[in-house]
Amino acid sequence: MVETFEFLVDRLATPIGELLIVADRQGRLRTVDWTDHEARMRRLLDRYYGQGRYTLEAARDPGGLTKAMRAYFKGDIDAIDKLPVETTGTDFQRSVWRSLRKIRRGRTISYAELASRIGKPRAIRAAGLANGQNPISIVVPCHRVIGSNGTLTGYGGGLPRKKWLLEHEGAL
């Protein structure tokens, strides 16, 4: 028998666009993305869980996740620090994503620093690719990684959102 996944999805209006919050029935965050990138989010879910092997059911505030995200956008940056997350991906990707969660608010690091933090200092490009494939933006703060020269580089939600998030967290 093929395993299927039941996910709950809520939507949250934020100052920088509407956010999709996807959780499992245990209240663990599975993915966060912007509604203008919903097609990309569905492709990611297809890749990680199998096309046709998951359902998305509308739900209000699954596991209290929407409330926490709302608090974050209202200025309680720490509200997202302890949210439970569950992701699939390679061991390497998950090591990068775990490392991202350790970047403190108000701080940024370079891709080179990210690679060093996971014990693979020469895997800068691979760490950057894993950072870009992070399915749980904001909570797993891929936006806190910038270029070695301090420039804002790559963010799946767009550089204006990355800039806003970093300013919101006091990193810029």
Q: Could you characterize the architecture of this molecule?
A:
The longest helix has 12 residues, at 38-49. Helix content is 33%, strand content 19%. It has helices spanning 38-49, 65-73, 91-100, 111-117, 124-132, 159-168; strands spanning 5-14, 17-24, 29-34, 54-58, 109-110, 145-146. The strands form two sheets. A four-stranded mixed β-sheet has the order 3-2-1-4. A two-stranded parallel sheet has the order 5-6. The protein is globular and about 45 Å long. Helix 4 (111-117) crosses helix 5 (124-132). The protein is an alpha/beta fold and 172 residues long. The protein is built from six helices and six strands, in the order βββαβααβααβα.
Brief summary of the model shown:
With 172 residues, the protein is an alpha/beta fold. The protein has helices at residues 38-49, 65-73, 91-100, 111-117, 124-132, 159-168, and strands at 5-14, 17-24, 29-34, 54-58, 109-110, 145-146.
Query: What's the overall average pLDDT, rounded?
Result: 94
Structural class label: alpha/beta
What is the topology, as strand order, of the major beta sheet? 3-2-1-4
Share of helix among residues? 25-40%
Q: Which helices and strands, and how do they pair?
A:
Blueprint: E1 5-14, E2 17-24, E3 29-34, H1 38-49, E4 54-58, H2 65-73, H3 91-100, E5 109-110, H4 111-117, H5 124-132, E6 145-146, H6 159-168
